[in-house]
Amino acid sequence: MKAFITVVGRDTVGVVSRVSTLCSELNINIEDISQSILQGMFAMIMLVDLAGCNVTHEELRARVEALGQEMEMQINLTRQEVFDAMHTI
C-alpha cells in the first residue's frame, strides 16, 4: 500500500532526517521525495510504500502525529487509495 507523507512548517535543520528516520524505524520505504523552502517555510511530500510497515495503521498515525508535535510542524499521512477514490467520482 502506498501513502503520501506531507510536512509543512518553519524551516529548520534536520526535518528530512527526522522524518526519514521514522520511516526507517517502521520499515517504510521512501519511493520519491519533493521538498521546497518558500519564504522560510519548509514543504515536503514523500511517496512511501507501507507494505513492510511493522506497526498498525493506528500506531503509524500516532507516531506521525507525535513527530509533528515534537517538531512543531504539520505532518500528515494519506493513503494513496484516498486519492484514487477522489478521482473516480
Automatic annotation (TrEMBL):
Q: Which PROSITE patterns match?
A: ACT
**CDD domains linked to this entry:** ACT_1ZPV
In this protein, which residues make up the domain named ACT?
Answer: 4-82
Pfam entry (one)? ACT_6
Q: Record's InterPro entries?
A: ACT-like_dom_sf (IPR045865), ACT_dom (IPR002912), UPF0237/GcvR_regulator (IPR050990), UPF0237_ACT (IPR022986)
Which family is this protein grouped under?
Answer: Belongs to the UPF0237 family.
- HAMAP family from the UniProt entry: UPF0237
NCBIfam families recorded: PRK00194.1
**Name of the molecule in the record:** UPF0237 protein JCM17207_01190
